[in-house]
Amino acid sequence: MHKPRRRTNYYERFYFEYDGMLYKSKKNCCEQLGLEYGSVLGYRRVNNCSFTEAIDHFKGLQEEQQFIFRNRKWLSLQTCCDYYGLNKYSVLHYKYDYGFTIQESLEKAIKHAEQLKFKYKGKTYPSFPQCCKQMGIPTNTVRKCMKETGRSKAVALTYCIKKAEERKYGNPSPFIYRNKEYPMFTKCCCEYNIEPEKVRQKSKALGVPLQRALDYFLLEHPVRRKKEFDKNLSESTSELCRTYGIKRSDIYNYLRRNNSSKEEAIKHYIELNATVGSEPIVFQGVEYVDLRECCRMLDISYRWVCEKILNQELSVEEVLLYYKGKKEALRKMEKEPIRLENGVLYNNLAEFCTALKIRKKDIYGYIYANDCSVSEAATYYADRQMVSEKEIPQIGDHIYKDLRECCKDQKVPYRWVCNKMLQEDVSVQDAVQYYKRKQEKRQQKAQRQVPVKGKMPEPQHVNVLGKKYESKERCYKGLGITKKSVQNHMKKTSCTFEEAVVYCYEKKLEKQFEFRGEIYKSYNACCTAYNLAQEYVAIKAKREKITRQEAMEKLLAQRESEKTI
Fold first, then answer.
1. Which of 5, 112, 167, 437 lies 20 to 30 A from 197 at CA?
2. Which helix (H) or strand (E) holds 500?
3. Reduced to 3 states, what is the DSSP secondary structure of residue 213?
């Protein structure tokens, strides 16, 4: 007969009693009391005491951390900071560096956090950088826009968001080039060893997508050109056009426009036919032989339609509707009367352009660039024309009949001169002289940067603190200061070079920190050398009212004693 096994009390040996309460284990006791089990074990080992005494020690520390703030008892500073959304170390900064109580430090931190809050489009954010981060815009970009244009934070952020959306629309991510997908446009440029900014400039100058601009640069470097075409492309152009149903005139037009090879042109139209097709299409109830015939009947650029279909992956009907609506809007815009701010009335845009000798495409370009009405664009060009004609430009002894002729002769942009006269209300001579000086400064700077071959620049001797140095670089190296700090101080205070060097050298001496007979560059460098936490040393020195050197000695001695144990 099988005897039942005796009930074991194995788990009872782990029970732990503390303050009249029985816990399953010592670890369970620490968890219930809100203590770190590892910290209690470490304190017991270092101080050679019982587990109960270690718990009593941490319970005492826990009670010391409790405080009352705004009629509420808080168990720890971290809990209070989490509730009010504060940084714990900011509160400790007020407490230890300024000697405030914990309640005063919390009030200061809460007031500071309220001042940092930023409201944008009806929503409140903890700070302006946090708002920029959630909007996906770098804070430095917005601040640069504010500095250059004088806009407020909200207006500058809205402008940067709009520009980012435009870039994303014109340069979608991921970027696809030659049937390969890249996470971004710059990664593609890195693979082909081409500068992204040059590709963007070429794309903007030619009015073509980034893919076409990349093709242009790759064709300028035949060694890097990749041959990824069909084997059939070794045949003659006429046979390939017959095989793939391509017009020879399209091939030669593409060659002239893009300065490409025949292989690139044929591959482009093979992809185009695969995407668009050469079959009959029906648009708004009318059947056309193909897309080319439809574009010709609607007076729409076939090339623009094809590029939009390829680059933005839209359907043929969507692209045709887009360009048809755009054309109708332009035609309607041309027929509307134009009334300027000075009261002059023109029957239509053609009459206005003829009277003032302005091209229509300039008006359209200003409308698209500034998102304004026809009247605003016309008023701008009329004001510019009036400004250019109201004064007779005289530069030196030479008198010009026309401002355009003056700008061309002086080699300054006509548009820039007119804009400066409009915006700042200055004379023709001042505007022209301003841009001439800018160009001269730019040329002088370029000449200084380009060294003359076979001629070494003469070193500039400097006398600082009673010592003569062969050059400024030797002075920086001898005194142990940086060139950037000296230049920044000179820029801020407009002082001489010698005064800036003396100031930076005195600042360097103030930062030096001496410990155990050695001089360190700074207090932080000393803490790094001994692997000590800077904040912990500062807090210990403040709490015990001793110097930081003495606090470091105590911490190092404590570390050595722990190693021996």
1. 437
2. helix 497-511
3. helix
